[in-house]
Design goal:
Blueprint (H helix, E strand, L loop, with lengths): L1 H54 L3 H36 L1 H23 L3 H67 L2 H41 L5 H13 L6 H13 L3 H25 L8 H15 L3 H18 L8
């Protein structure tokens, strides 16, 4: 009888896990504008309450103004950042010719090393590698035009979807600022929703701690990379620093994926001091992450680091690129549900 009860519990847990996965994959994208609106409303609601109490100004009016100002500020930051990145990207493309000469020089050095140690003619090696490169280039060119058209269509659809999402989020947030307190009272009076409210609050608390910590770490790593690349006189310190900081937040990648090969290339080009600088930057960022992660996250989530890593990996498989975020969120939601229903016991 006890074994049968356990099997029922396992089947129920599997059903809940499947339901959470399907909900995250298919339902969450539809609810995203409303969740964004809820986030904005919760963000400005305390200030809107204070202004209503102190100056007798309508909460809806102050909420609408503050949310609009917040969206304008976010948009301004994104536009300014994108403009700076575009300028550096343009400069990078203009310098492609110079970079190509450097790569050609490095190719000659590599071919000479192969000739010295393997006895294969450097000219033969060079011609073979260039032939392969031209073959890949021609294949890419053949696929580039249709791919570019598809990309532009996706970009247009994405832009329209983004604008629609922002408008819906704004309207929903303004409405929530007015009615959120009343909604809370009504929902709290429903016994069936008490458990789900507790689960939601617990997941938001755990998820907030985790993602806040990851954003802080990513910002610090990006700033360190931008500062280090600036000191190394890299003209693309901004775009490279942001990219490396983002890669560091992804599992199985880290700053070493970019900085170590970069240092190796510089070393092959005979720039030992620069190579040492890039390697030192990699060591610095690795030490920073090792120091910051336990301090900011530690054991506060009640989830083992290995389990978090597995959740990211499975999230990428199940959700795609968004699994980097949705994987840990799914794990946190399942943990909150299982704990509330007595299926999860903390180990002491």
């Amino acid at each position: 009888m006890k074994m049968q009860k356990k099997w029922k519990q396992y089947l129920a847990a599997a059903g809940v896990a499947a339901g959470v996965f399907l909900g995250m994959k298919y339902l969450l994208p539809l609810l995203l504008p409303f969740l964004a609106g809820l986030f904005l409303a919760v963000l400005v609601l305390p200030a809107a309450r204070q202004l209503e109490k102190k100056f007798k100004i309508s909460r809806s009016l102050t909420g609408a103004v503050m949310i609009f100002a917040l969206l304008v500020l976010i948009g301004w930051i994104l536009i300014r950042g994108a403009s700076a990145l575009i300028v550096q990207a343009q400069n990078l493309f203009e310098e492609i010719g110079v970079l190509a000469e450097g790569w050609e020089h490095m190719l000659d050095n590599c071919c000479n090393v192969i000739e010295r140690y393997a006895g294969i003619s450097s000219q033969d090696t060079r011609e073979f590698l260039l032939l392969q490169f031209r073959s890949v280039s021609s294949q890419l060119k053949a696929k580039f035009s249709p791919a570019m058209l598809t990309y532009l269509l996706r970009l247009m659809k994405g832009s329209i979807a983004a604008v629609t999402t922002v408008v819906i989020s704004y309207v929903f947030a303004v409405l929530l600022v007015k009615d959120l307190d009343e909604w809370n009272k009504k929902l709290s009076s429903w016994p069936a929703l008490v458990k789900w409210k507790k689960i939601w609050q617990e997941m938001l608390c755990a998820g907030g701690r985790y993602f806040k910590a990851q954003i802080i770490i990513m910002a610090i790593i990006s700033a360190a990379c931008m500062g280090g690349l600036f000191l190394l006189k890299n003209p693309y310190y901004l775009i490279a620093g942001i990219l490396i900081g983002f890669l560091d937040a992804l599992p199985f990648i880290g700053t070493g994926t970019v900085l170590i090969p970069w240092a190796a290339v510089l070393l092959l080009q005979g720039e030992a001091a620069q190579a040492a600088g890039y390697f030192l930057l990699f060591v610095t960022t690795a030490v920073l992450r090792e120091f910051l992660e336990p301090k900011l996250i530690g054991g506060k989530l009640g989830i083992a680091p290995a389990a978090m890593l597995i959740s990211v990996y499975l999230g990428i498989i199940g959700y795609g690129v968004s699994g980097v975020i949705l994987g840990p969120l799914t794990l946190m939601l399942l943990q909150a549900i299982f704990r509330e229903w007595g299926w999860w016991r903390e180990r002491k």
